[in-house]
Amino acid sequence: MIESTLDIRTKDGAMESFICRPERDQPHPAVLFLMDAPGIREELRDMARRLATVGYYVVLPNLYYRAGRDTFFGPTVLTKDDPEHVRMRAIRTKMTIPPVMEDVAAMLDFVDHQPEVKRGPVGVHGYCMSGPYALAAAARYPDRIAAAASFYGTWIVSDAQESPHLSLSKPKGELYIACAEHDDLAPLPMVEELRGLFENSGANGELEIYPGVHHGFAFPGRWCFDKPAAERHWERLLALYRRRLR
Questions:
Q1: Omega into 27 within 30° of 0, i.e. cis?
Q2: Mean pLDDT, to the nearest integer, of 102-113?
Q3: Deepest of 119, 182, 205, 246, by most Cβ within 10 A of its Cβ?
C-alpha cells in the first residue's frame, strides 16, 4: 500500500487530502471518499485503506480546510455541548453543497493528472453530512461520476435550493442510498418520501433501509457500530464500484 498526505489546490486554498492506493498493478480507478461531520481521523483512513486494498486509488479530503489547515477534532467531538462538539458544529453548519461541488471538481482534475489513476469513470461516496454531497456530485458531474453512494446521509430531502432530492434524475451513473432505521437526522418519514422521489425520478440505483441500526452504524469507533450491517455496507459499496468502475 502506498499512502501520502498532500494538498489539492482549490480556488479557496489548499485542501489537505489523504491518498491511498495499491502498490501494484496500476493504474486503478479513482474513488472520492467524503468524510462525515466529525472530520478526518484514523478511523476514516483505515476505511480508505480497505478500499485501496481491493484496487482503488482513494482520495479522502479534509472538507473543513476552509476553516484552517489541520482542522481536526478530539474524541469528544460527538458529545453534545463539549467544546470540541461546539467547535465542529460552528464549522459544519456553514458548509453548503455549492462550495463542496467546487472541491469535487478540484479532486476530479487532480486524479486526471495522476499516472496511477485509470482513465475513465470515477466513484464517490459519503457518510452523514457527505451523503448529500455524493449524490449532488453525481448530478453535477454526470459524465465523470459513474457511481455514487450515500450512507446515512443527513437531510437529503430539505427546502434548501440545492437539496439533492431535486436532482435525482440528473445522474447518468448508478446511485446507492443506505439509511438507518433509527436516525434523527434522516427520520423514516423523510426516507419514505425520498424513496418515492427516487422511484419517480427514473434514477438508476437503489434505496435500502438497514433495519435495527442507528446513524453511524458503519464506523467501528462509534457506540452504534453494527458489524453485520457494516459488512453489508461494504458489500454493497464494493459491488457498486465493481459494476461501474471498469
A1: yes
A2: 97
A3: 205
Return the residue matching grid coordinates 438497514. 210
Contact 194, 158 (CB under 8 A): no
- Higher-scoring residue by pLDDT: 235, 1: 235
| Residue with the three cell numbers 462509534 | 222
Provide the pLDDT confidence category of residue 112 given band limits of 50, 70 and 90.
Answer: very high
* Chain centre to alpha carbon of residue 118: 20
pLDDT at 28 over 90: yes
The C-alpha atoms of residue 74 and residue 15 are separated, in whole angstroms, by 20
The string of DSSP letters for 184-198 reads TTS-HHHHHHHHHHH
Query: Is residue 162 predicted with pLDDT exceeding 80?
Result: no
Whole-angstrom distance, CA of residue 95 vs CA of residue 100: 8
C-alpha separations of 15 from 5, 101, 212 in Å: 10, 13, 37
Q: What share of residues in the chain are helix, strand, coil (percent, to 5)? A: 35, 25, 40
pTM reported for the whole predicted model: 0.95
Amino acid at 16: E
